[in-house]
Structure formats: C-alpha cells, structure tokens
C-alpha cells in the first residue's frame, strides 16, 4: 500500500493500491448534477484522474486549474476528471467561480467508491489523498502517482507526458 502523509503526519489509506499495468477499477461517483459517473462512461477515451482532498484549498485549486489549462491541448480523445469528496453543489459553484470548463469534477462523497477502488481514501480524515492516474482507452492503467505528502503538488509534467504518449 502507498504510504503518504498529510501535513507531515502519517495517515492510513483504505482500499487497493493501483499499479501501472492493472486494469482500472470501476467506481461510481456523482457528477455536479447528481447523476452517476463510472469508468465505463468514458470507455474508449484516454482518462486522467486528478484526485484532490478538497477544491477549496490552495494546492487542489491550483492542480485543477493546471489540468484544466492542459486539457485544451490534449484533444477530444482525452477526458480529465477531478475527483474529491466535496459535495457536487460545492464543486459546481467552485467550477463556475474558477472558470473551469475542460475538466469534469466528480464527487466521491456518498460512497467513497473511487477512494476505496484506487486506494486513496484517507481513513482519519474522510478525504481523498492527492494522486494522479492515467488510464488508456482499453482501461489499462499507464501512469500512477500517489503524492507522498498530500499538501504537495503532483508531477504535472509527468502526468501530461503519460497522456500524450497515448494520444
């Protein structure tokens, strides 16, 4: 299991660690309109999952904005999701205020389905750990980053390079 810290303190991740070469686990999260979203909804596309603890924090805000900017250069065969446990209503409000239109925010607040399937559910905080996963059009995981300190930024360049390698 991946080992991470949150504000320098160790935390417990619940779920299964995902590794490069694995078939991406399925999940059910909620779109901003409360409709269910699962892995199969983007079947045949390259997917980047940007996982954040909460959009209302500086690093999560910056991470989502960065992937939103990058999305415009990646083409129609790429879907970028930002996954958090923020309520769908809060995600929609945040996206409107931030001008986010190329990334789809989805909420794992109800069941922590994504968090457990990808091993990013922080038991002590009921938040998701910061991570990035890239899944190819066939559902194979091609890139994984569990950010060791949840308050740090992910490696944006490596994640985008992983997506571009599939496009």
Question: Characteristics of this structure?
Answer:
167 residues; alpha+beta; Glutaredoxin; 5-stranded mixed beta sheet; 3-stranded antiparallel beta sheet; 4 helices; Redoxin
Summary of the model, kept short:
The protein starts with a strand and ends with a helix. The protein has 4 helices and 12 strands; from the N terminus they run E-E-E-E-E-E-H-E-H-E-H-E-E-E-E-H.
Describe the structure.
The termini are far apart. The chain has a single domain, classed as Glutaredoxin. The chain has a five-stranded mixed beta sheet. The chain has a three-stranded antiparallel beta sheet with strand order 3-9-10. It has a two-stranded antiparallel ribbon with strand order 1-2. Strand 9 (121-122) and strand 10 form a beta hairpin. 41% of the residues are buried. It contains four helices and twelve strands, in the order ββββββαβαβαββββα. The protein has 167 residues and is of the alpha+beta class. It is globular, with a radius of gyration of 14 Å. The longest helix has 14 residues, at 58-71. The model has no long low-confidence stretch (mean pLDDT 96). 25% of the residues lie in helices and 26% in strands.
């Amino acid at each position: 299991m991946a080992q991470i810290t949150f504000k320098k303190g160790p935390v417990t991740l619940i779920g299964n660690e995902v590794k490069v070469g694995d078939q991406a686990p399925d999940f059910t999260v909620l779109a901003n309109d409360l409709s269910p979203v699962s892995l199969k909804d983007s079947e045949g596309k390259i997917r980047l999952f940007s996982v954040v603890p909460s959009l209302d924090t500086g690093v999560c805000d910056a991470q989502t904005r960065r992937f939103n900017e990058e999305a415009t250069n990646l083409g129609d065969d790429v879907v970028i999701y930002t996954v958090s446990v923020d309520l769908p209503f809060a995600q929609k409000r945040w996206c409107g205020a931030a001008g986010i239109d190329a990334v789809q925010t989805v909420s794992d607040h109800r069941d922590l389905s994504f968090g457990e399937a990808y091993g990013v559910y922080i038991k002590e905080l009921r938040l998701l750990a910061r991570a990035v996963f890239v899944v190819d059009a066939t559902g194979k995981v091609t890139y994984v980053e569990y950010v060791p300190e949840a308050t740090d930024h992910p490696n944006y360049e490596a994640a985008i390079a992983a997506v571009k390698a599939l496009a």
